[in-house]
Each structure stands twice: as structure tokens, then as C-alpha cells.
């Protein structure tokens, strides 16, 4: 059942998703959208980890636990980022990175 | 075409299409909604790979947690009808060029490589196995990263409070105004 789809397809989906995230990171100038692009990249990496784990090392769980830890770190990172973004908005009344250029307000 | 193949195609199409729309949509609340769809479809891919626990974690943590705080912060910082300005063409060309080049290189490398699938009896992944691995200090155990993550989460908790706390001096100046 599993080998009807080769591993390459998963890796290609992961790659495309990762680079869509990279493109978003470069194109967008809104902090929240940049954060969403980062989440896309993390998700692409998770797909890769799980697919490689399932196809190449089904008797181990390394990829599974890496994914678990990445998800935990992504949640932590998102909460810190949101706290920072709301704080920036409070001070500058904008979250456009082009307009937030002062480090010390 | 079997049902498995159709499911894989559906999930990956949803993932790719909506991640593209997340990045390119100019209405930020719609971006967040598309991101939610991407994350749920990713959970579908995890289910396809028979990692049910990870799929549950994905839905609960990403779709239930992260998307909610993202939407929450969007509503705090934007008007609902806010549309971002059109993207400058230079940045669009740079972004798509870098991403296209990187993707082409990576996909080329992937297609060159010949993977050898392991035919061993797959390990059953249930909550009991995962829990035993997480607190196991011996070979193949993840007790140390588990502890590191718990310290990290504590640091994040403290950090988020410190960052979000109102500055005393700042508060006084705003009161004087």
C-alpha cells in the first residue's frame, strides 16, 4: 500500500512548500505574513522528516520525534513572535518591516 | 488509480495550492485561513503515512493553537478589510527567482538520488511507545531533548510575559501626554 507512491513525491511536495515559504519571506513585508511563511517552511521540513522516517527507517522513530520537537519549538516561536509583533504595533502603530527601522524607540 | 494515490494527490494539491495562496493573498485574514487549510492537509499527509499521533498533534497544536493566535494578532493589528499594497515587482522577481532556483536545484538533487526502501517490519506508533521513548534515558531514548524542550517552554513563557508587559517609564510618558 505504502509503496504505490515513491518517496520522491513527498520530498518534492516538501521542497516546493519550503520554497513557497522562502518566496513569501522575501516578497511580503508584513511581520505576521512573514511569520506565516516561516510556519510553512517548518511544516515542509516536518513532512520530509516523517516521509523519510516511514519509507527508509520504519523500525525507528527518529523522524517522528524530530517532528514532535519541531512542532513544540514552532509553537514557542510563534507565541514569542506574536508578543513581539503586538509590542511593535503598540509603539509604532504599524507592523510593516520597512517602517519599523528604529531599534531604540 | 487506487484510493491511496487519489488521497495523496488531493492532500498534496491542497497543500501546494493553498500555501501559494497564503503567500500571495493580499488580504491578511484570508492568508491565515489558507494557512489553516494547509496545516489541516498536512495532518492528512501524516495520517496517510500512518503517523496518527503526529496528525493529532498537528491539528491540535498548529490548527488549534498557532492559527488561533495568528488570527488573534491580525485582529489586534489590522482592520478586517485591510488590503496590503501591491508587491513591488523587484521583490516579486527576487523572491520567485531565489525560490525557483533553490527548488529546481533541490528537486534535481532529489531525483538524482536512488533511495533504498527499508522492508523491515514497521514499528507500531502508539501513545505508549511514544511515551516510553520520550522518558527513556538509555539507547534510543529522548529524555534529554524532552527536558531541553521543557526548559525552553518555561523560558518562552517568561520571555513572552516580559516582552508583552507594559514598560513603566513608557507608561508614565503616555500618561503625561
From TrEMBL, chain A:
Record-level GO cellular component terms: NADH dehydrogenase complex; plasma membrane
Entry keyword set: Cell membrane, Membrane, NAD, Quinone, Translocase, Transmembrane, Transmembrane helix, Transport
InterPro entries assigned to the protein according to its UniProt record, in alphabetical order: NADH_UbQ_OxRdtase_chain4L/K, NUOK/Mnh_C1-like
Major place of residence: membrane
Residue stretches spanning the membrane: 6-27, 34-52, 64-86
Taxonomic lineage of the native organism: Bacteria, Pseudomonadati, Bacteroidota, Bacteroidia, Marinilabiliales
Membrane topology qualifier: Multi-pass membrane protein
Name of the protein in its database record: NADH-quinone oxidoreductase subunit K
The protein's assembly and partners: NDH-1 is composed of 14 different subunits. Subunits NuoA, H, J, K, L, M, N constitute the membrane sector of the complex.
This enzyme's EC code(s): 7.1.1.-
Keyword flag Cell membrane: yes
Reaction it catalyzes: a quinone + NADH + 5 H(+)(in) = a quinol + NAD(+) + 4 H(+)(out)
Keyword Translocase: yes
Annotated gene: nuoK
Family: Belongs to the complex I subunit 4L family.
Any one biological process term the GO annotation gives: ATP synthesis coupled electron transport
Compartment annotation: Cell membrane; Membrane
GO MF assignments: NADH dehydrogenase (quinone) (non-electrogenic) activity; quinone binding
Physiological role: NDH-1 shuttles electrons from NADH, via FMN and iron-sulfur (Fe-S) centers, to quinones in the respiratory chain. The immediate electron acceptor for the enzyme in this species is believed to be ubiquinone. Couples the redox reaction to proton translocation (for every two electrons transferred, four hydrogen ions are translocated across the cytoplasmic membrane), and thus conserves the redox energy in a proton gradient. NDH-1 shuttles electrons from NADH, via FMN and iron-sulfur (Fe-S) centers, to quinones in the respiratory chain. The immediate electron acceptor for the enzyme in this species is believed to be a menaquinone. Couples the redox reaction to proton translocation (for every two electrons transferred, four hydrogen ions are translocated across the cytoplasmic membrane), and thus conserves the redox energy in a proton gradient.
From TrEMBL, chain B:
Catalytic activities: a quinone + NADH + 5 H(+)(in) = a quinol + NAD(+) + 4 H(+)(out)
EC class of the enzyme, as a word: translocase
Membrane topology: Multi-pass membrane protein
Entry keyword set: Cell membrane, Membrane, NAD, Quinone, Transmembrane, Transmembrane helix
Lineage, opening ranks: Bacteria, Pseudomonadati, Bacteroidota, Bacteroidia, Marinilabiliales
Highest taxon listed in the record's lineage: Bacteria
A molecular function (GO) term: quinone binding
Family stated for the protein in its record: Belongs to the complex I subunit 6 family.
Name this protein carries in UniProt: NADH-quinone oxidoreductase subunit J
Main location (coarse class): membrane
Transmembrane segments: 6-24, 31-49, 55-77, 89-111, 142-164
An annotated GO cellular component: plasma membrane
PANTHER family: NADH-UBIQUINONE OXIDOREDUCTASE CHAIN 6
Organism: Breznakibacter xylanolyticus
The protein's Enzyme Commission number: 7.1.1.-
Chain's role: NDH-1 shuttles electrons from NADH, via FMN and iron-sulfur (Fe-S) centers, to quinones in the respiratory chain. Couples the redox reaction to proton translocation (for every two electrons transferred, four hydrogen ions are translocated across the cytoplasmic membrane), and thus conserves the redox energy in a proton gradient.
Gene3D superfamilies: NADH-ubiquinone/plastoquinone oxidoreductase chain 6, subunit NuoJ
